[in-house]
Amino acid sequence: MDPDGSVSPKEEEKIEAARTPSPSPEQKQHDEKLAKILDACRWEDAEMLRALATSEGGFLSDNARQQAWPLLLGCGDIKTEPVKTNWRLLPEHRDEYQVRLDVDRSFIFYPNDQSPKELDRRKEELYDLIVEVLRRQPYLCYFQGYHDICQLLLLVLDPPNRASTVARLSILRIRDFMLPNLEPALAQLRLIPALLYAVNPKLYNHLPQTQPFFALSGTLTMYAHDIQEYGDIARLFDVLLAREAVFSVYMFAYIVLQRSEELFETPSDEPEMLHSILSKLPKPLDLENLISGTVKLFEKHPPESLSPWRSISQSSVLKTARWSSQTENQTLDDGEMYFSRQVKELDWAEKRKKVLGMVWKYRKPAGTVGVAVLVAVLSIMARRSWGPSGIFGAFWRQWMGYQGH
User: Fold this and answer.
1) pLDDT band at residue 26 under the 50/70/90 scheme
2) Mean pLDDT in the chain?
């Protein structure tokens, strides 16, 4: 205290410090982790970001996500990108009408602190974001639920980062869902029964031996359609963007495994009821347990150990983004190349299906001449696919009734 009785500035600081409560251990831990996240973003340390995304709490705040998510998808510094043509001047995309219908139904659960007028403005921003990405990449096919993914990215990211981040996510991470048909998406889902069988054969045998359509909504939309809490889906995106593309499939398999007791209570001869249970995520959903459990499942049963993995296209995102770091180093041109290859594979599969159907239909009436003609047709169609795994091999196995192993 000064001679005149007044308090000196240093004394005031000490008094103020004494009044300010010291941070709790939890707050201190939170602040330390947030500092690590921001440092990793500053140094573009994707490996550190992936580790932090998987750890409890993920990226903790939208401020951190604004920087981390684009880096994980390989966006880098958007200021270095060349100036692009105004997307509004580009030709309309064929799916814009469906986009409008879906956007008009968006923002149902969050944000819940905005007025109807503000939500209308958000819907226009979402429509513009989706249409910009589609017009710049006109080969992509829109799917219902895509707007759920884009809605979250719009709410989290700064406007300058949105379109570039959504484009890279679309082309390099969820490309399989933006092809002309859903067969590549269904190929992903076939990994789920294989995982169930590897971990719990009894549960596998209890469930309907059909296509696992129950997982389509969750995996297709990165769970953005099914999780209604903003904080929860943002947390989940931390790890989904940080991990391999196939991680989302493993996550659904883990959810099913965790519900085994509930599923066993439903008789196996009630497939509709089992499907109904499986198609809805459990509530409440313990996100941290889900993430850590999925990591362990992935480590114990990597995709290469599952027999359906061999049937996955080499151009599928599951294999072109098999390792977390692959996406960062790929370009949009790389993604378009893989897309074109997948379209050719789908076209070829459709042709093979038609030819095999024709052969099977006429297998009995066809005489020696007919068989010769059909084999000639097959040889032209097959060209370089005469091996056992090609169309001729498939025809021969079906003709002879060969079942394989």
Assistant:
1) confident
2) 86
Instruction: Work out the pLDDT band at 395, boundaries 50, 70, 90.
Output: very low
| pLDDT tens-digit readout, 138-173 | 999 999 999 999 999 999 999 999 999 999 999 999
d(CA 87, CA 235): 31
pLDDT of residue 230: 96
Whole-structure pTM value? 0.83
Q: Which residues contact 173 (CB under 8 A, 6 or more apart)?
A: 73, 241, 245, 317, 321, 327
3-state SS track over the chain: CCCCCCCCHHHHHHHHHHHCCCCCHHHHHHHHHHHHHHHHHHCCCHHHHHHHHHCCCCCCCHHHHHHHHHHHCCCCCHHHCCCCCCHHHCCCCCCHHHHHHHHCCCCCCCCCCCCHHHHHHHHHHHHHHHHHHHHHCCCCCCCCCHHHHHHHHHHHCCHHHHHHHHHHHHHHCCHHHHCCCCHHHHHHHCHHHHHHHHHCHHHHHHCCCCCCHHHHHHHHCCCCCCCCCHHHHHHHHHHHHHCCCCHHHHHHHHHHHHCHHHHHCCCCCCHHHHHHHHCCCCCCCCHHHHHHHHHHHHHHCCHHHCHHHHHCCCCCHHHHCCCCCHHHHCCHHHHHHHHHHHHHHHHHHHHHHHHHHHHHHCCCCCCHHHHHHHHHHHHHHHCCCCCCCCHHHHHHHHHHCCCCC
pLDDT at 376: 57
CB atoms within 10 A of CB 33: 18
Cβ 212 vs Cβ 193: under 8 Å: yes
Indicate whether 397 pLDDT > 90: no
Q: How many other CB atoms sit within 10 Å of the CB of residue 84?
A: 11
Question: Do residues 171 and 340 lie in contact, with contact meaning Cβ atoms separated by under 8 Å?
Answer: no
Per-residue pLDDT at 8: 61
Q: Give the pLDDT band (50/70/90) at residue 14.
A: low
